[in-house]
Specification:
GO molecular function, one term: methyltransferase activity
CATH class: Alpha Beta
Mean pLDDT: 91
CATH superfamily: Vaccinia Virus protein VP39
Strand content: 15-25%
Number of strands: 7
Protein name: Methyltransferase domain-containing protein
Number of domains: 1
Keywords: Methyltransferase, Transferase
Structural class: alpha/beta
CATH architecture: 3-Layer(aba) Sandwich
CATH topology: Rossmann fold
Order of helices and strands: HEHEHEEHEHEE
Helix content: 25-40%
Oligomer: single chain
Organism: Limosilactobacillus fastidiosus
Number of helices: 5
Strand order of the largest sheet: 3-2-1-4-5-7-6
Radius of gyration: 18 Å
GO biological process, one term: methylation
Largest sheet: 7 strands, mixed
Low-confidence stretches: none
Shape: globular
């Protein structure tokens, strides 16, 4: 009985440790790799769908120089919006940033404007699930014809591949992130979807 209890405690600690690694370290490493591969030019127009991952919005803003701009879509979380507004002031990037309230299924953004459309752990929260297809269509609508879509999320990103192919994307890659993206274990893992026309 004592051995079983020790095994259970060890498993719980492993799950919690893996979750905390992804939350506090892994997400940052994943995005650092993604941004390193994208090599975003400083005059780019970037849209971030959802501001729920603190740090990405400001990190992108620091990479840009006017007329480059990052536009973040706040999907209903006023506290996150206020935090990002404070970070904008602290980092002195107001000339390269904009935050707008909206929905992923009906983006308040101009069509064919953005070089990069990024989403960090947001698509899984679009409900009902059928609206995720609409959110993908909206992301594609606001992209320039040669734009790049990046979705970092957990769950099955394969579900978006056929829709993106139908929308003219012939180059859709889904990249595993390994233990850096495990939310407690391999049963809930993060992947990166990169789509280019």
């Amino acid at each position: 009985m004592k051995i079983l209890l020790i095994i259970i405690i060890i498993l719980i600690l492993l799950v919690v440790g893996t979750y905390c690694n992804t939350l506090f370290r892994g997400r940052r490493l994943i995005w650092r790799r993604v941004l390193g591969q994208l090599n975003v030019p400083e005059d780019s127009q970037v849209a971030i769908l959802g501001l729920n991952y603190a740090g990405l919005f400001i990190e992108i803003a620091k990479m840009l120089k006017a007329p480059g701009k990052v536009t973040g879509i706040n999907i209903g979380n006023e506290s996150v919006k206020k935090q990002e507004e404070e970070r904008i002031k602290e980092n002195r990037v107001a000339d390269r940033t904009k935050i707008v309230d909206g929905s992923l299924a009906n983006l308040p953004l101009e069509s064919r404007r953005y070089d990069y459309v990024l989403s960090a752990f947001t698509f899984h929260s679009v409900t009902p699930a059928i609206n995720r297809g609409r959110a993908i269509q909206e992301a594609v609508r606001v992209m320039k014809p040669e734009g790049i879509l990046v979705i970092v999320d957990f769950g099955d990103l394969q579900q978006y591949r056929q829709l993106l192919n139908n929308l003219g994307f012939q180059n859709v890659r889904i990249i595993p992130t390994g233990m850096d993206g495990w939310w407690g274990g391999p049963w809930l893992k993060t992947s990166v979807l990169v789509a280019k026309r």
